[in-house]
Amino acid sequence: MLTNSFLMSLIRSGISISMGILLLVITSYLLYKVIKKTKEMRQRKRFFKRNGGLLLKQQEEADSSLVGKTILFTSSELEKATNNFNENRILGRGGQGTVYKGMLVDGRIVAIKKSKVVDESQLEQFINEVVILSQVNHRNVVKLLGCCLETDVPLLVSEFIPNGTLYDRLHIEIDELPISLNMRLQIATEVAGALAYLHYATSIPIYHRDIKTTNILLDDKFRAKVSDFGTSRFVAMDQTHLTTLVKGTFGYLDPEYFQSSQFTEKSDVYSFGVVLVELLTGERPISLTRFGENRSLATHFMLAMEDRRVMSIFDATVIKEGTRNELLEVANLAMRCLNLTGKYRPTMKEVATELETIRMSHIPDINQSTSGPTMHAEDLPVSLYGESSSIFLSFNSNISQ
Ligand SMILES: Nc1ncnc2c1ncn2[C@@H]1O[C@H](COP(=O)(O)OP(=O)(O)OP(=O)(O)O)[C@@H](O)[C@H]1O
Ligand SMILES: *[C@@H]1O[C@H](CO)[C@@H](O)[C@H](O)[C@H]1NC(C)=O
Ligand SMILES: *[C@@H]1O[C@H](CO)[C@@H](O)[C@H](O)[C@H]1NC(C)=O
Ligand SMILES: *[C@@H]1O[C@H](CO)[C@@H](O)[C@H](O)[C@H]1NC(C)=O
Ligand SMILES: *[C@@H]1O[C@H](CO)[C@@H](O)[C@H](O)[C@H]1NC(C)=O
Whose C-alpha lies nearest to ligand 3, atom 1? Predict the structure, then answer.
């Protein structure tokens, strides 16, 4: 009897002890969760502050028309979109960081750029340009949808452009149909138009600073979309590059900027000149097969211009489809863009206008079916023509009247 009730109380106290332990475990687990959440939230806030989030808020307060226009993405939103920045979502790695493909909850496909660390002294300008760029709507500029400042480094979210880079199309996918001259002129005109727009038509001039064919993306209708506007200079310098203040890509770099470290609108013009020569010759900016001074495509081209043998370095498709006169006109424009002295180069506005005129007068080779297949704009939906330039639009409406 006695032992029985002793046993009972022993069991009871045993139960209450284990209940107590269980309660303790549960509360400490919950406490741990809360602390972790708070810590994470604090860290996100700290990152947000360090990445210029408060500057962004100040800008919004100063100009009420901005509210809601620069879209701030949360870190969890972007983690979800990229499956936690999964390796197999990587689209490419550049000098400035890694680009991931992602899908937002609303189904939009985006490219998310995880840049290297932004130089803190340039944070204000970085935020300024993000605010302006996210308001730019130009059909030949990759649309910046917004950014995320809650992460270790700022993330830039832009629309996804499906058909790869102009570089790949010119130099890598050589088993595909070569791009027609008509298409090359169109791409050049579109890129020049986008650059002229950002140099002259935005509230502050925005220079690209890293024009090259890997930054020219192609959409499903073969329209050119310029990516990576302005952001290259905000990336903090690698330890290894401390000796130079110059940022850009070898082969496209304005020699004047290289000497003075002073970036001007004409530095973009120089890089565009290299792209133009790349389109005419189908050659890489730095050759793998030429040597000495000819390794640089710009020098190779300028030497050929001087010796009046420039037609000999043009791409076969270009020679086949263009008249000598119009090709020399484009080459002459490229030569002026590549003038060693910036002030002698044309402005991007002048370049865009001249290219538009050349493109308008170019009659796509009507003998193309006999001279072998190339990809032509005529193969594409009519809307491409209608939208490709304002001049063309008025031209079209004149015909229909
Ligand atoms: N909006 C986008 N849509 C689709 N693909 C993209 C987009 N942005 C970038 N990419 C892809 O990611 C790759 C890397 O882009 P990124 O701009 O980081 O590198 P880069 O242009 O080669 O070098 P850099 O960083 O020096 O400009 C590009 O080559 C392109 O293939
Ligand atoms: C774009 O890419 C898709 C898929 O890679 C391909 O099917 C399509 O033909 C391409 N379009 C053009 C214009 O190259
Ligand atoms: C560059 O090419 C031109 C024309 O082919 C040639 O005359 C010149 O010698 C070349 N220069 C070098 C350094 O190879
Ligand atoms: C640069 O432009 C000036 C003025 O048009 C011209 O005199 C000079 O020859 C050009 N230089 C080169 C290398 O083309
Ligand atoms: C088309 O080819 C024919 C015969 O080869 C030639 O006479 C004609 O000039 C060509 N037209 C154009 C625009 O190249």
Answer: 294
- For the annotated catalytic residues, the residue numbers are 210
CA angle 102/143/263 to nearest 5° reads 115
CB 189 within 8 A of CB 354: no
* CA 197 to ligand 5 centroid distance, Å: 39
pTM: 0.80
Q: Going residue by residue through the chain (401 aa), what tens digit of pLDDT does each one get?
A: 556 787 788 788 888 888 889 999 999 999 999 999 998 888 888 888 877 777 777 777 777 666 666 688 999 999 999 999 999 999 988 777 899 999 999 999 999 988 777 677 777 777 777 887 888 889 999 999 988 888 888 888 999 999 999 999 999 977 788 899 999 999 999 999 999 999 999 888 888 988 999 999 999 999 999 998 766 565 544 444 433 456 778 899 999 998 888 889 999 999 999 999 999 999 999 998 998 999 999 999 999 999 999 999 999 999 999 999 999 999 999 999 999 999 999 999 999 999 999 999 987 755 554 445 565 544 443 333 333 333 222 223 333 32
- Give the DSSP letter string of 223-239: -EEE---SGGGGBPPPG
CATH top class, domain 166-399: mainly alpha
What CATH superfamily classification does 64-159 receive? Phosphorylase Kinase; domain 1 (3.30.200.20)
